[in-house]
Amino acid sequence: LVWVGLVIGFGGVAVLVSPQLNLEKSSFPAVLAVLAASLLWSVGSILMKRNPVNSALMPSVGLQMLSAGSVFLLIAAITGDFSLAEASFSGYAALIYLIFIGSILAYSAFFYMIKFIPMAKAGTYAYINPVVAIVLGSLILNETLTAQKIMAAGVIIFGVVLVQRSKVSTKTALMAEEEVPAKRSLNWNIFPQKRKEE
Q1: What percent of the chain has pLDDT over 90?
Q2: CB-based contacts of 9, cutoff 8 Å, min separation 6
Q3: Model pTM greater than 0.85?
Q4: Is-contact 87 136, C-beta < 8 A?
Q5: DSSP letter (8 states) at residue 105
Q6: Which one, of 166, 125, 134, 126, lies nearest residue 153 by Cα?
Q7: CA 174, CA 12: separation in Å to the nearest integer?
Q8: What contacts 107, CB < 8 A, 6 or more positions away?
Q9: Mean pLDDT of each 10-residue bin along the chain, 198 residues long
Q10: How far apart are CA 193 and CA 82, in angstroms?
Q11: Is the dihedral of CA 53, 34, 95, 69 positive or negative?
Q12: Helix (H), strand (E) at residue 68
């Protein structure tokens, strides 16, 4: 049931983005880069759950953001797409929102969440994001709600519901959690804890 839900949800996302999908030769590397990033993110999340390390949550998330941001900043500087002078107020506001809400809060919540629920269920947040974007785009930016968007959103939500209602994945995840040695458990505290003096 989990795999059925994941495939249905993926199909809904494919239907949603198909009008904007450009598979011309010039954009093909970009499409591959997005697919590779999604694959590596999934593998990394699974490895983090199965092979946790003794590290506080917030510094781990911060290190991830700092590493990725540095690479993106370097690429933007090389390609000439980075200019503080040309950025608008709305651009800075969006950047601040993404830093605190879309990155620090969201990623901390995700990594904390994977401790308690199976990865397949936790990962469905990525399916919900496009649906939220459709709703916000319609309410805030007055974007048109087409029949294709509505149908795709319905398919995505149906797939997510199938995954969330699955009981097999939960049992499997609990069995896998028991195999992880207690000494290797991840420190799920948000901030580092001070060591007690002996």
Answers
A1: 11
A2: 124, 127, 155, 156, 158, 159, 160, 163
A3: no
A4: no
A5: I
A6: 134
A7: 29
A8: 61, 64, 65
A9: 86 84 66 82 79 69 81 83 76 86 82 81 87 90 89 94 74 47 47 52
A10: 38
A11: positive
A12: helix 57-79
Which residue has 């901030």 as its token pair?
Answer: 191
Q: CA separation (Å) from 111 to 24, 115, 183, 189?
A: 36, 7, 19, 11
Report the distance separating Cα 136 and Cα 172, nearest Å: 36
Which residue type occupies 80? G
CA atoms of 6 and 127, how far apart (whole Å)? 9
pLDDT score at 189: 54
**Which token pair is 121?**
């269920």
pLDDT at position 48 is 75
Closest residue by Cα to residue 190 from 134, 107, 76, 125: 107
Closest CA to 167 of 7, 10, 45, 2: 2
Other C-beta atoms lying within 10 Å of the C-beta of residue 163? 23
CB 120 within 8 A of CB 6: yes
CA–CA dist 1, 167 (Å, integer) = 9
Which residue reads 């007690």 in tokens?
196
CA separation (Å) from 97 to 101, 145, 168?
5, 25, 37
What residue type is 174 in one-letter code? L
pLDDT in tens, 143-193: 888 999 999 999 999 999 999 888 754 445 444 444 444 444 445 455 555
